[in-house]
């Protein structure tokens, strides 16, 4: 007969997400609640009373459904009336039910993340959950450059989505996009694909994006891109999609999301350090070829940099394109009056501390 | 008697002491204060909580950057209830809609039915239970801010504002729009999806995605109810028609009722034909929807009718009053009344330009407000002088009635105003106000028999507040450069005065220009024509001019006569014809040189005829050179 051991609660994390269920340690073995943990992994559990046996089965097909079910309570539709700046159309196609975009709950206290372009042209925002409940929303923070915005609703105790580790986001991994495309009656649909590329540059984005072949359109724009562990890896944006190009959609990666959220928390908006210079890419960078060349100063109001100067590093990080410059600043600038810029002028390379204005 | 009295007193005061020492009693009047504010400096044990100074166990920031505060801060500020389990060291915090369970030393917390990870686990420090401030505050809907300079933390939870959806706005049994004249039952289970600026589109959606739309469409043709019915019915060919009836509402107004099926959706539309507008209520729902849902949508549509009385039982959606609505802009801090039938135009609008237009019988009226920075060269008076000169220059000299620039005072602000009217019905007026560092230009171009009344109502309703230059910045008015442009192709060139813009890039065979300030268009045409000789020139060219005359029902104003320009003989003809809305003047100059026929045609509305535009037209011809 075993004497009663001291059972200490063991926290269980499944794929990085903390679970309500706890396990306990007995000697060297960790015991966990079978059903809770298996279901969190996406498996099915059945119990046979007669043989007192537990059967655990995992079917990859069911995984997507389970993920979608798991994440759906955190995904919302965003609707509203267009602001008067937009002429009202007098003919409405009677098959069209409007949803402006999608958002995802990132904090239980009513904080929803979406695209800036989804909310910037509408007022009287209403946020609608999968179960049909709806709440009035207000835009709390917005940054058009990164195409991200926060909508706040007056509801507590919501289920937020868990953020993945940015380093885990690599090409080839499977992802699902959850959103509210085109018709409110088809709420919370799921599209599946893979990560086609990370750190992808497009003509109109300020920061690099994740490229995916999961279908993203204006309805599920602003919604989450989820990995197979059920974690958030990006916010989908239909803004960058090429017209008529299929199978090529983009998501805003966590590096940008985390940066913008931290800025919203600190300053209410994103303050970027401006050095008073406009840049030009090398022609290789413009057409997307890998290059060692830096970026050239096109026009400058700064006394530290002149037209024709080449910039190859920012705060110690090498950069070869304007997008790389933007992400280097995003990742390395933590405050202060200057940016350290490595400049090549007439063949000579120097490091200059260029003063910045925040805007 | 005395003894009993004393005992009672002691018991009372003991009870009182108990009350005071029970934790969690909020200092505010309500149980859960609607507005919460906590502010303190890190390391300071005195905190301001909802306006009261409270001394607690010192809050501190952990190595990882998490601020921990004694749980008392949470209970005092938010009014939340805290329960402590000695055995498991679990702290349960209760707040409306949220139950949170934290555990000493455990980074995983429970919020309602899910788990969340904390940046720092709660600890017990000197008998006080310390909990993460940001996590709990944000879970209660507050925002946490940190000021680098003063090293202070502020937590604020705003009292929530009114619901923007109709369901939260009114309990009245009916809703309607008195401007367009419709009433229906209050759609209690629906939320308001959209309401357009001028109220011509209102939509409601329910939790299942079914919707009800009310749309007002301006009628451009006069047809009978039966004619509209046939057209509407024809438009539905290709869809499965379930109903196509002519009905009458409770006030005796005729309406059409169509119900059709498409892509698994049922569309039910009822339309009323009024004098100016068609009013239609449409409801869309899934063909497979529950009977209950179908009934709800349809009974809402059934309750819709026109011409009802707007008594105290009806919630009036319209924002119009006596035919006007108030427009206000929060950023530029001005407001004014605009007639209810004007629409907001967004076409290529800059942020500092607000334009409203109305189209009636092909005449476009508009009202605008533009905001510019004030400077030595940009003042209300200077703009008034400049604009009056420019605008009156391009108005028909025979018709223009322009007033002097008058000083007027509107709601305490001095303004400069002038009016120029090409006709009784058509009035142009500009008013310029200076408020703080900015100049506001309120301008109008109105076609109406009541244009004076309308202009006065709009102008007298205008008010503006001083703007913060730091916030708004510098806005310059982009007046076109007063430099003429050279237009050229391989075969010819000419000079286009600055007051004109090119409609498209010029071709060897032609070009077109429009005047910026008035309704005048110049078209240039160059075509090979071999069969014209000096002998038949006059005849042939006059024939061509006549072709224009035959094109519309024109009247000759000036018979074809010859004019010499730069050594070339041009044949000039002027004619006029009646359009739906005004008289259109056509001035043609046509010549033949280098085997080509060159024609210059000036088309103008009557209001622009015989103005500076005509002189500039001749200047364009004079500047023409051909290879």
List keywords for this structure.
heterodimer, A: 359 residues, alpha+beta, 15% helix, B: alpha+beta, eight-stranded antiparallel sheet, seven-stranded antiparallel sheet, 11 helices
Question: Please, could you describe this protein's structure?
Answer:
The complex is a heterodimer of chains A (359) and B (627). By secondary structure, chain A is an alpha+beta fold. In chain A, strands 6-7-8-11-10-9 form a six-stranded antiparallel β-barrel. In chain A, strands 13-14-15-18-17-16 form a six-stranded antiparallel β-barrel. By secondary structure, chain B is α+β, with helices and mostly antiparallel strands. Chain B is 19% helix and 45% strand. Chain B contains eleven helices and 47 strands. In chain B, the strands form nine sheets. In chain B, strands 29, 30, 31, 32, 33, 34, 35 and 36 form an eight-stranded antiparallel beta sheet that branches. In chain B, strands 17-18-19-23-22-21-20 form a seven-stranded antiparallel beta sheet, sandwiched between helices. A seven-stranded antiparallel beta sheet of chain B has the order 40-41-42-46-45-44-43, sandwiched between helices. The radius of gyration of chain B is 37 Å and the shape is extended. Chain B starts with a helix and ends with a strand. Chains A and B meet through strand 2, strand 6, strand 9 and strand 10 of A and strand 9, strand 10, strand 13, strand 17 and strand 18 of B.
Task: Give the SSE map.
The complex is a heterodimer of chains A (359) and B (627).
Chain A: E1 9-14, E2 17-26, E3 29-31, H1 34-41, E4 44-48, E5 53-57, H2 60-71, E6 75-82, E7 101-107, E8 111-114, H3 116-119, E9 122-129, E10 134-143, E11 148-153, E12 162-163, E13 174-179, E14 189-200, E15 209-212, E16 224-227, E17 231-237, E18 249-253, H4 254-267, E19 273-274, E20 277-280, H5 283-287, E21 295-300, E22 310-314, E23 317-318, H6 322-332, E24 338-345, E25 348-355, E26 357-358
Parallel strand pairs in A: 12-17
Antiparallel strand pairs in A: 1-2, 2-3, 4-5, 6-7, 6-9, 7-8, 8-11, 9-10, 10-11, 13-14, 13-16, 14-15, 15-18, 16-17, 17-18, 19-26, 20-21, 21-22, 22-23, 22-24, 24-25
Chain B: H1 2-21, E1 36-41, E2 46-49, E3 52-55, E4 60-61, E5 67-70, H2 71-78, E6 81-85, E7 90-95, E8 98-103, E9 106-111, E10 114-117, E11 123-125, E12 128-132, H3 133-139, E13 143-147, E14 152-157, H4 166-169, E15 174-177, E16 182-185, E17 190-195, E18 201-206, E19 211-218, H5 225-235, E20 240-248, E21 254-262, E22 265-273, E23 277-286, H6 291-302, E24 305-306, E25 314-316, E26 320-321, E27 324-329, E28 334-339, E29 343-345, E30 353-360, E31 363-373, H7 380-393, E32 401-402, E33 406-410, E34 413-421, E35 426-435, E36 438-447, H8 451-460, E37 463-464, H9 469-472, E38 485-488, E39 492-496, E40 500-502, E41 510-515, E42 520-528, H10 537-551, E43 555-565, E44 568-578, E45 583-593, E46 596-605, H11 612-622, E47 625-626
Parallel strand pairs in B: 15-25
Antiparallel strand pairs in B: 1-2, 1-14, 2-3, 4-5, 5-12, 6-7, 7-8, 8-9, 9-10, 11-12, 13-14, 15-16, 16-24, 17-18, 18-19, 19-23, 20-21, 21-22, 22-23, 26-27, 27-28, 28-37, 29-30, 30-31, 31-36, 32-34, 33-34, 34-35, 35-36, 38-39, 39-47, 40-41, 41-42, 42-46, 43-44, 44-45, 45-46
